[in-house]
Structure formats: structure tokens, C-alpha cells
Amino acid sequence: MLKTYQIIIKGQVQGVGFRPFVYVLANNFKLKGTVSNNEEGVIIIATEQESTIFDFYNQLVNNPPPVARITHHQINQIDFTPFEDFSIIPSTKGNKLNLTLTPDFALCNDCSAEMNDPENNRFQYPFTTCVNCGPRWSLTNSFPFERANTAVNSFPMCNSCLKEYTDPENRRFHSQTNTCSTCGIQLQLTDSNQKTIDLENNTLFKKIAKLLSDGKIIALKNTSGYLLCCDARNEKIIQELRKRKKRPHKPFAVLYPSLKILQNEISISENELKILTSTERPIVIISTKKYQGHIDLKSIAPHLNQLGVMLPYTGILQLLASELTFPIVATSGNIHGSPIISDEKMAIDLLSNVADYFLHHNLKITNPQDDSVLKISSKFEISVLFRRSRGYAPNYFDFQKPNNQKVLATGGHLKSSISFTPNDNIYISQYLGNLDHFDVAERYSKTISYFINLFEETPHVILTDAHPQYQSNLFAHEFGNKLKKQIIEIQHHKAHFAAVLGEHQLFNSDDKILGVIWDGTGFGDDKNIWGSEFFTYEKGSMKRVSHLSYFNWIAGDKMAKEPRLSLLSLASEEMISSIKNKFTTEEWLIYQSILKNNKLKTSSMGRLFDALASLLNLVDFNTYEGEAAIVLENQVEDYQLKNAVNYHPIIENGIISPQLILQHCHHDFLTGVNTSQIIINFLYTLSAIIIQIAKQQNIKHIALSGGVFQNTTLIDMLMALAKDDFYLYFNKQLPPNDENISFGQLMYYYHCKM
Q1: Which of 116, 353, 361, 407 has its CA 20 to 30 A from that of 524?
Q2: Could you tell me where the DSSP H helices lie in 246-304?
């Protein structure tokens, strides 16, 4: 007996070739019916024998398309409906959007092969995509994910593309981003004065490769924004790029033309290989201790023993790579501190004094995104996201919304992101940047407006950081007052703690959990600057149980930019003579006066790292955020934990003395202990402190977050000390830094006592 069933599939199921996959599978099972997108996912109506439909259903949910991710599925019998065949029907939008969105996917092997095949009609067409790959979030104007709702809609398909689009046997069957050189996106190469350089398509990338080899800087418009590129072997041009971009020391990412060239120069682990070649295709930070290539490492990553590398992930980068025999710098197309540029006019205005040549194209980018960045710890291979953007945004999986409230979380300040729960899902924006910069604040505001318009929902509640001077706080209050909505401030470190609890779904745990939240800055409940916090969590309640003993916070934001000030604040009498030369006579008198009258205190772990970097004469002035801490970690070669010294072996009444730790470091420095060993001892001390506090609190479960836990050496030491006696939880889908604050604000609001 024939029956009709409705199947609902939710998750990452739009823009991933799901409907064409269903169409082919349904025909294999000889089903009759329809498949369509709607505002919640994919809807399938099928008529056939009940057993056949269930066999189809099981096959579908257990073996979906390669880049799909099913989060929910259900099947229900409905009134019998006869169909003549099985078809894909136009999407309908009866309600508001309530589905997982689709991130950008790296170029697949099939499309890459076609672009390099002279017999294929997509030979050297740089915007080649299919249902399994290509930009998605970058080009999304609205949902459901249909061509009409993307920036590609400006390029009507030619007959050849249309034939592919309507052919069930073709890989581009219902591929919404389908274009070719006949009907598609056009490239334009210009000099810095925007004079067009006329070239045949088959010589364009040869020309760009030659320009790079000749020491020129190219601003290349990728599918998620502009990249600034130059020869990674050429010290002179790298230094020139630093000068023009106003980025004196922050490391550049390097694009390798191929995996083969990369593996010939750098040793990579299986996990690093897996991530480098994944559909997300982030920048992966890899050790250069055994580097065997010709990159100018000192210019690209000053004072570091690591390098951020990536492989080509779009057609444009693949075609350029096919003409290269050497790695190139591929850094965000912006002036240091500003957001990545995606608009041609803005690129010309802002980058004409940076780039010698421009490669433009006429595809509009809706959501500009930086490349995501990730690192894997060397011993325990713990994966740590440093920046969550292209390939990951804007989805977050494994979230069960506890109520129907629509909540907007405005995040932090230095590494801003926003989170929004307009429906059953949570959406977390791509990395937006430091809100001190006007351009970043403007994009931040536009991103919030975009989310609200996309989902056609206004938040009931607006969450923000408790710091009264954060731009996110100021925006939340202005926006919330305008909408007459409730505004709730959530303490910075409690949001960090809630973020890692939320990622591991620990809010309903029967066990008490210790939260270790270490970073540079956060406005505390006592109005001091927190940053080394130990909390306990139990049954919806967080309690602060320990932290570094307070020391002077001086000169406001300047302290985070000048590690010498952290050293000055923490210095003992015996250190004074050796650090006085870091200041002019006038500065010394001013800061002594400030210290004498200072009232603002801090428990910042980030500033303790800074103080050590200055004490060891590594960094006195940060030229980018976290420079001192990064340089510190990069002084460490290999280490044996059994040889490490604990500078703070006893903790009484939860009191942790940063001065004591620093005094031991200073003593070892004066007595000739090498820099690497001092840093190993320092990191070991911090790891041992965490374990000791956990034992004192009689807690086995430890959740760790905050920017300090980007230090993968510290993570590995903790894993080694914890053994099987403790359960450690680190951020996994989100970075430990302030990008997770918006998510943490949501988690705190939903699960903790306010």
C-alpha cells in the first residue's frame, strides 16, 4: 500500500547540494514526490511503500552530502498525495528564518582539476564552484539559500551553465553559485593608479606571478575580501609591506602553492595536514624549528619559531598558485587595525599607497571575512582556534535553546564578535576586530543590523560587557535604549567561564567545576581590572575563589601596550636598578609619582606575562596585541617537565603572589639560567598553581578560557600534570580569547543566576 510521508531535515543543509542529492537518491529508490528548501531547512514529501520510504530516510540521514551537517531530522505520515515523479520545487518562505546558515567551503578537488584541464570549459576560470565547494556566507544576502538571495544573482547563467544546473547527473545540479567564463565574474588587473593592464585570461596569472617574483605587492580580491601578497623570500619587499601597512612586527601568513612544496620545507603532523586540507582551510600555525626552505622567516615572523601557513582555497588562489614555485605572503587587505576590505572603491582609496598592483573582480562580497587561524599543541595535539572567521562563521552547533527569548549579545572590545538567538539556533558572527578603530566599529554596527534584518527579528534582551568604556557596552546601551529593550551587563570573566561551560554542555553537571579564566583585561565586580580568575560553578552559581594578588594598574590602556610598565608595577626593590634604564629620567619620575598615588588595582595574568617578557629583555613595547606573550612562548624549545622548577610551590588561603613568581624569575636571570628554561619554569609554575587550587577546592573538573590559553605550551603542561586525575575542558568551536565573550554572555544569561 502506498503512503505519503513528510521528512524534515535541519542543520547545515542549504547551499551544500542537499536537494540535488535528495533528488538522485529518491529516484534511486523510485520515490515520487518533491524536495524544497524553506526557512527551516529541507522539506521532502515522498509517496511509495512505507518500507521503501524508511529505507530512503535512513540512507539519507546516515550518508548526507560531504559538506552537509544534519542537526535534526524527523519523518511523519501525512495525507496521501499522488505524484507523477520526483522533483525539486521552488523554495517557499512562509515564516521567518530558522535554520543553520552556510559557511564558505574550500575549492574541491573536482573543481580544481577542471580549472587545470585545457579540455574543460572551466579551464582557468577562477570562480569555478559546485554543490560541494565555494563561497556561501561571503555572498549571502538572504535565505533560503537560492541564487536570487546571493550576490551571484547579478550573473545570469548561460545555456551551458543552465544545462548543468538542470541535469540530475551533473555535479552542478542546482548549484546556486554556478557560473563560467561566458556568463560569470570578470577579473581586472590594474596598477596602483588604476590603469588597466590588458591581458589574455590565460596569461593573467602568469603576469601576477611574474610581478610577485619581481618584488611587487599585489592587492588581490579573493571571494571573502582583499589579500595583500608579496614574495615570501624577499626581505626587502616584506619590510616594505610592513612599512606601508603600518605593521612593524606582527607575523604575516604565508600561502604555499601546493602541499608538496609545503611538506618539502616544513614538517607537519597528521592533524595539521588534516586541518590544512579541510573544507574550512584555515591558516595553521606550524613550528619552524626544522624549516628547510627559502622563506625569510625573520621578516615574516620576527622573533618567532612558528609560521602561519595555508593552502589555496579558492579558484583565484589556485590559479595563481599553479604559476608559482615559491610561497607568498597573503595577509588581510587592510591598514593594520582596520577590518579586511572587500569593496573595490575602498580598496583603491586605502590601499593605493600599499599595493603596486590590484586584481579586482566584479562580484560583490556581502560578508567580508578574514582567514581563520588555528594552532595544534605539539605534545597532546590540542586544537586551539585563534581566530574564527572564514569557513566557520556564522554557525554554532550543539546548542539547545532553553527558552524562546530572542537575545543579542554584543561581546567584548578587543576581539569583537556578536551572537544572536533570533530562533532555535545561535549565530555567531565572524571575527570583527578591535573596536578602538572607527572602521571596525562601523562594520560591527552594520553586522548587527544585517543579522537583525536577515532574521527579521528584534532582540528582546541585549547583553553586553560590564566595562563602562567598551564600545560594545556603549553601543548596547544606545541601541537598547532606542529600542526600549532590557540591557544586561555581564562580567567579562564570568562570560569567558560560561563560554567554555556552554561549549561542553556542563551547566547541568552534578559535579562542581573550577573555572580558570586568564587574560589581559576585564572590568571586575569590585571595579578593579581582573585577569587571573578562579571561579567555582555549581547549580547556576559562579563564585570567585582565587586570583593573583592585586598589583598596580597604571597609565590605563598604555599598560597593555608597554610590558615595561607591568614590570615596573611588579618590580621588587632589588629589580629597580636593572629596569630603570627602560625609562627616561622624566618618565621614571612621572611613573614613580603615579605608583605612589595609584588606587586602581589589577589581577591580570596577561600583565604578568608582559612583565616577564620585559624582565628578560624580550619585549618592552607591544606593536600588536599579545606580542610579549607570543614572543615568550616562542623562546621555548623542547622541554622536560621533570626538570622544571616551581616558583610558587605553596599557596595558602588562595593567595597567589605574582611578585614572588617574578622574583624567582629575576634571580634565575641574574644567575645565568637560560631564557628558555626560565620561561619553562614560569609556565610550569602556572600549571602547577591550577592543579594545586583544584586540589584545595576538591574539584576534578577544570574549565579553562581567556586569551592566555592560546599558549599551547601551557596547555600541554596542564595536560601532563592533570594526567587521569582531572578532567580539563578547553574552548573547541570558539577561540579562548575575547571572540568567545558574546557566546559566553548568552550562556551566562540562559543558565546562570543573575
Answers
A1: 407
A2: 259-265, 270-276, 297-300
Count CB atoms within 10 A of the CB of residue 205. 23
CB 20 within 8 A of CB 88: yes
On whether the CB atoms of residues 103 and 137 are closer than 8 A, the answer is: yes
Residue whose entry in the numeric block shows the C-alpha cell 557596552: 473
Whether residue 205 contacts residue 322, with contact meaning beta carbons closer than 8 Å, is answered with yes
Is residue 531 packed enough to be buried (19+ CB in 10 Å), middle (13-18) or exposed (0-12)?
Answer: buried
Asked if the domains 2-88 and 187-373 are classified in one and the same CATH topology, the answer is no
Name the residue with cell 548568552: 746
AA identity, residue 225: G
How many whole angstroms separate alpha carbon 307 and alpha carbon 588?
A: 37
Residue entry with cell 571575527: 431
The class level of CATH for 187-373 reads: alpha beta
Residue with cell 567579562: 492
3-state secondary structure 451-491: HHHHHCCCCCEEEEECCCCCHHHHHHHHHHHHHCCEEEEEC
Q: How far apart are CA 338 and CA 547, in angstroms?
A: 34
What's the sign of the alpha-carbon dihedral 676, 678, 680, 682? negative
Positive/negative CA dihedral, 519, 521, 522, 527:
positive
DSSP string of 532-568, one letter each residue: EEEEEEETTEEEEEEEEPPEE--STTHHHH-HHHHHH
What does the alpha-carbon distance between residue 319 and residue 104 come to, in Å, rounded to a whole number? 19
Grid coordinates representing 736 are 579562548
Among 3.40.50.1970, 3.30.530.20, 3.30.70.100, 3.40.50.720, name the CATH number for the domain at 2-88: 3.30.70.100
Residue at grid coordinates 579551464: 123
Instruction: Give pTM, 2 decimals.
Output: 0.96
Nearest to 516 by CA among 718, 679, 662, 658: 718
pLDDT of residue 401: 86
Q: How many residues can be counted in the chain?
A: 754
Name the DSSP letter for residue 358. Answer: E
Give a three-class secondary structure readout of 305-353: CEEEEECCCCHHHHHHHCCCCCCEEEEECCCCCCCCCCCHHHHHHHHCC
Assigned C-alpha cell, 76: 511523519
- Grouped pLDDT means (10 residues each) for the chain, 754 residues: 96 94 96 94 96 98 95 96 94 81 96 96 96 96 89 97 94 96 96 92 92 98 98 98 96 98 97 98 96 96 97 98 98 92 97 97 97 97 98 91 93 97 95 95 97 95 97 97 97 98 97 98 97 97 98 94 98 92 96 94 98 98 97 94 96 94 98 97 98 98 98 98 97 98 98 89
| Number of neighbouring beta carbons within 10 Å of residue 572 | 11
Residue with cell 539519507: 60
Amino acid at site 735: P
**What pLDDT score was predicted for residue 97?**
86
Residue 715: strand, helix, or coil: helix
Distance CA 74, CA 737 (A): 37
CATH topology of domain 498-751: Nucleotidyltransferase; domain 5 (3.30.420)
What fold, for 407-490?
A: Nucleotidyltransferase; domain 5 (3.30.420)
Give the DSSP letter string of 17-51. SHHHHHHHHHHHTT-EEEEEEETTEEEEEEEEEHH
Q: Dihedrals φ, ψ of 50, to 5°?
A: -55, -45
Burial class (CB in 10 A: 0-12, 13-18, 19+), 29: middle
CA 203 – CA 208 distance, rounded (Å): 9
Q: Cα–Cα distance between 310 and 390 in angstroms, integer?
A: 13
